[in-house]
Design a protein that fits this description.
Mean pLDDT: 95
Strand order of the largest sheet: 1-2-3-4-5-7-10-11
Order of helices and strands: EHHHEHHEHHEHHEEHHHHEEEHEHEEEH
Bound molecules: beta-D-fucopyranose
Largest sheet: 8 strands, parallel, barrel
Helix content: 25-40%
Distance between the termini: 37 Å
Shape: globular
Low-confidence stretches: 1-9
Radius of gyration: 21 Å
Structural class: alpha/beta
Length: 457
Amino acid sequence: MAAGLSAAKSPARFTWGVSTSSYQIEGAANEDGRGPSIWDSYCRQPGRIANGDTGDIACDHYHRYREDVGLMRQLGVNAYRFSTSWPRVMPQGRGEVNEAGLAFYDRLIDELLAAGIEPWLCLYHWDLPQALGDLGGWTNPDSAHWFADYATLIGRSYGDRVKRYATFNEPSVFTLFGYCLGGSAPGVADRVALLRAIHHVNLAHGAAVDRLRASVPEASLGAIHNYQPCRPASGDGADLLAAQRLDAYWNGAFPDPQLLGSYPPLLAEAMAPHLRPDDLAQICRPVDWFGLNHYSPHYVSADVGSALGFRFAAAPEGVLRSTMGWPVEPDAFRDTLLNVNDRYRLPVYVLENGTAARDAVDAEGDVADQPRIDYLRAYTGAMFAAIAAGADVRGYFIWSLLDNFEWGSGYGQRFGLVYVDYPTLRRIPKASFRWYAQLIKSGPFPPSPPAPPYRAP
Ligand code: FCB
């Protein structure tokens, strides 16, 4: 913990929150006119998801959202990040609008506002309408227009009450694993498809930013990037180059064109055939903050047999790992915050951080998740240290409020502050829930972020 913080008063503008996403918690997959998404289809392909799990029911948040907002109120968060499900509001992805789907988010937003919790709305957390998937999904050059129209619908529907919008959640993750490396919907394995998807998602981001500015008064906009240091697994030159390549795809392919106006040098040649003259100007639109998701660093080895020349490697001996196998290294979080702060010169909101753990309900009916508390204490400490060292961090959101559908791991990995007993859907706040409530209420608090750096007009 950085010294001298515990006595400080929580700066009024620091935001404490929790995050979730539509497909992972809502359920109600076939209700009120929702169309299928690429994740519904992907889950039905044998062998894709652990235990054959699907998001059909998930946490049944669609019906239990009032109880879930009640839990947030109990927790004391000032903000809640969720995503809207594109196929719930536009079942075919374009054209016809589903009023019943829109009405769900109206109810949720009103419930949040009544509880004094600011809604942070993410437009895309991976559940592309299947009808658009059938047209090639993000490899289709029209995808930026589809997304812009969807953004307009959302902005017009909720812009009177919701001011905070993120365009995409972790574009590097869903493009890399969805279009090339495997492990994510739609399950395509093709390097050219990946390059096309990267560029179209970037164009979609720029177009959506423009549409949200036009449809939402006083909009506060950003995108959410999963930024992770990429470390070579050995001192070998080939591993070093592999780590630099992963860094370009993982950390650079979206923030660099969106915020600096160019693709990272290691990708520039590969991207060149996909660029039209005006594209980078359309992608690089002014935004208000940098949304950061961070869990751990990556270790990387060279692999000439793989499509991109690298593979993920194990962390060095002795590094603690979560049940996901992700290394627990809070110093990498501090360094990432400082690095992102220096490189992009925007206020940073940590919009996901947290850990999976081996949780179980004990004889007293409690879930004593000390490993999660240890993780969160260490990582918030690292964030406080980054703020003390000059990073302009304005908020911190834990992934996640509830245990939920963890993509390829199904329901086998639990990230929630609240345990979900899936057979009954009963919610049981864990010890970490009480720990976070206490942190929000009584500190230690982060020091005030420094004034934003001067930028020439
Ligand atoms: C992130 C995703 C989120 C969740 C966490 C554990 O990469 O954005 O949906 O799965 O990891």
